[in-house]
Amino acid sequence: MSESTNGLVIGSDGLARPAWADKSDLLRDYYDTEWGMPVRDEHGVFERLSLEAFQSGLSWATVLAKRPAFREAFAQFDPVTVAGFDEPDIERLLADARIIRNRAKILATIDNARATLALRDDGTDLSSLVWSFRPGRTPEPRSMADVPSSSTESVALSVELKRRGFRWVGPTTMFALMEAIGIVVTVQRPYRSIWDVG
């Protein structure tokens, strides 16, 4: 493994990735097969929004390792089911050592499921709303140091989601979501890197 001057890491397979994506097999596989790939269904966007909120202040590796347990604990992130969670469910989640047991984030996830259902009543859905904030032009960083942590669009998305009752959806978290589900592309797949590697 070697690091290039632009912050990318050349893995043992000869492919370039951000350093964070080359720290473990789990992160490498996630980056190669999921990160930045378009996710346009309500269920998929709700799951990723929820996991990004749990990641806030922690490492993505921690959340990704716990994702199978999160999916089990949160009914595969089905918004209808999660919206119906009550106090016994909250206590169950707080007692589940396999997930991140943060009461505020658990409550936010339940509230966000309810807000997701409310969007349906307004004639839209979570995916359509989130994707409506896709910028006309994606960032064009020349190195990892140039990759932003938020954008005008992520700020606007954060404001709109909060207006609609969502919580734990700050601009930085929303920018991470936008990267993860392919709304903005800051780093291309390793087999077609946008940066010269050397």
Describe how the helices and strands are arranged:
Elements: E1 2-3, E2 8-10, E3 16-18, H1 25-33, H2 42-55, H3 60-73, H4 79-83, H5 87-94, H6 103-121, H7 126-131, H8 152-163, H9 171-180
Antiparallel strand pairs: 1-2, 2-3
Protein name: 3-methyladenine DNA glycosylase
GO molecular function: DNA-3-methyladenine glycosylase activity
GO biological process, one term: base-excision repair
Q: Helical amount among residues, as a percent range?
A: 40-55%
* Low-confidence region ranges: 191-198
State the secondary-structure class: mainly alpha
Task: Report the C-alpha radius of gyration, rounded.
Answer: 17 Å
- The first-level CATH class name: Mainly Alpha
Mean pLDDT: 89
The CATH superfamily is identified as Hypothetical protein, domain 2
- Strand content of the residues, in percent? under 5%
Tally of helical segments = 9
Q: How are helices and strands ordered from N to C?
A: EEEHHHHHHHHH
Whole-Å distance between the termini? 12 Å
The number of distinct β-strands equals 3
Oligomer: single chain
When the domains are counted, the total is 1
Inertia-based shape: globular
**What is the fold-level CATH name, i.e. the topology?**
Endonuclease III, domain 1
Protein name: 3-methyladenine DNA glycosylase
GO molecular function, one term: DNA-3-methyladenine glycosylase activity
Organism: Microbacterium faecale
GO biological process, one term: base-excision repair
